[in-house]
Here is the input.
Amino acid sequence: MADQALTATGPAARPSRGGSSGPAGRAPAAGRGRARRHRWVPVLFLAPAVLYLLAFYGFPVVKNVTMGFQQYTTSTFVSGEAPWVGFENYRAVFRSAVFDRALLNTFVFTVGSIFGQFTIGMGLALFFQRRFPLSSFLRSLILVPWLIPLIASSAVWRWILDKDSGALNRFLQNVGLVDTRPGWLTNTSLALLAVIVVNIWIGIPFNATILFGGLQDVPEELYEAAELDGATGFRRFWSITWPLLRPVVNVVLVLGVVYTIKVLDIILGLTDAGPANATQTLATQSYQLSFRLFDFGQGAAVSNILIVISLLFAVLYLRATRRAVDE
Amino acid sequence: MAPRPTGRAVALTAVAALGLPLALTACSGGTGGGVSTITVLDYYNNEPDNTIYQTALEACGKAENVTIERTAVPGSDLIAKVLQMASTKTLPDVLMIDNPEVAQIAESGALTPLSDLGVEPQGVPQGILDASTYDGKLYGLQPVTNTLALFYNTDLLKAAGVTPPTTWAELKETAAKLTAGNQYGVAFSAKPDYEGTWQFLPFMWSNGGDESNIDTPEMAQALQLWVDLVKSGSASESVVTWSQADVNDQFIAGNTAMMVNGPWQIPVLSEHPDLHWDVVPIPVPKAGMTAVAPFGGESWTVPNTGKKANQEIAAKIVTCLNSDDNEMTFATGRQTIPTRTSIQTEFASSNPTMATFSKLVQDARARTGKLGSKWPEAATKIYTALGSALVGGMSPEEALTQAANG
Here is the structure.
């Protein structure tokens, strides 16, 4: 039975459309042996990738989803027992006072970061499209934020943004822009903005690099033709660059969302999700629930919510890339 | 055909790879009850702690005729490592845990009560034992401890013509007098993590505040003191972002004249010979009251490995680490305070800078003494309230009520 089903799907069985039950479906013995080998070769080639995906992507996701429905605490590690609690973890998370704040902050943080990263990244990509002396050197300098460990850059930014002795406030005061020094990391209405600005700085290299790469694929002839038609400046950008860059833009934006929504280290390094939860996001809340309160079940519940949001954008990403390939 | 021998070779390698560790474990399992190696896990991965504990552990092991196999991991990795070891049944024979985490780990069932192994400590203050107690049973012994006090810059206080404060009213007054230009009167850490809660404890406990119900007038008064210090400008708003190390840096830089901090900063302060400082107990609400400080430090426990022979030796090593001599070595070498009451006087007289801390420890209180494994939840509520009241625009009462219900 199973053998027949396999035969039917194999390449050797394809010519005989008569049905796998009929004698026509049975190939001579030698042919069958070869067919079986043919069937297994692609499976063998796929196996390492499939195993890798299952072990390192499938398993953690499944584990995380199930943990969200379990009472998973420090005791679980010793006894191996994690009682099922249904939606209790989700109920507790939704009921907690921090959740609404964290959800809103996650939204503002993601939209703000993406907007800043993308517009500045796009500006830089367009700027570097012109050839000028030292352009490639300067272009490589843009990558610097990408190359510094996040822990180090958030420590440096913490000094820069310090209220009393930070470089930014000293500059602002010397220039005469402010009378009282703003508490970038201590004021509850400024802290989220400060964290977004630092995250924009970190995200610019990614946006600029990918968009710059996309710009290289826009055919030069189109610009030459447009020039003959008298199109310059913004017209050139909106009518040629933007439409042709759209697939790349989609990819950059969707990946940007997926990366930004889960940012943890920068926020922990700069404000530790404070002051007064002003920079608390779903990612930091999940971290605190799991690794400070040791309530791994609730922590998993929050990160499952994050996974669902990321998944929505991943679907968008796949559709965007498919369109990019089609075009 | 080619695949076959290859397959067999792979299988052989796999068997060899699996079998080798098995064979090794079989060997270390001991020959007829004789234990030759005791494994130890701690987080003393920096000097001088690393060498001090290595030496002491080796000496204790030698007395029991066993070799010590010690692993030191970074502090932030320890609990994750312990949980991972618990799930794979590879816990060490002797395990060091930071005292507020003992209850949590004991609750999980990973530790063996010391009384089951015949360890009954004598001459240690009850507060210290409370920290390592869960559900009425003692799970660990802590050779040395530390606590918080008020450090002050003697030069700056002399220049301002003030003496170190002993009450809250004096603290506010003195801090205001010491605030001028870029210099703040006092600094502390109100960071939104356990560090912030830890620093607030001496103020809240000395005023009768209690972690089991934070929505009380006693708590609000203590929080009001911190709010007053920040709102009056005597302390920087940045306290909500500062760790205790940051607070120490501010003190060294002369940006603050006084700070709340612990003896583990003394080695760092000593690197600056131009900086003259001294220590007094944390000011109390009213004159004549006793300062109740929390204490820190790590506890040595015996994990529930199921290896009876190893556990018996492990318990002896834990006892050995808590001997008078070792407590004295750890205390003097690491700027900590011995826990045994009998050696306090000797220690305080030979280490005058530590005398203040030594006195505080006698009345110190364990963070988990009251709530046990529920402490992290309460600590989170407390640090949330700190932020809301200090910079979040809420009154201390509002902040505490909201945090209590959060």
Notes: Residues 1-27 of chain A have pLDDT under 50 and may be disordered. Chain A has one domain: 98-326.
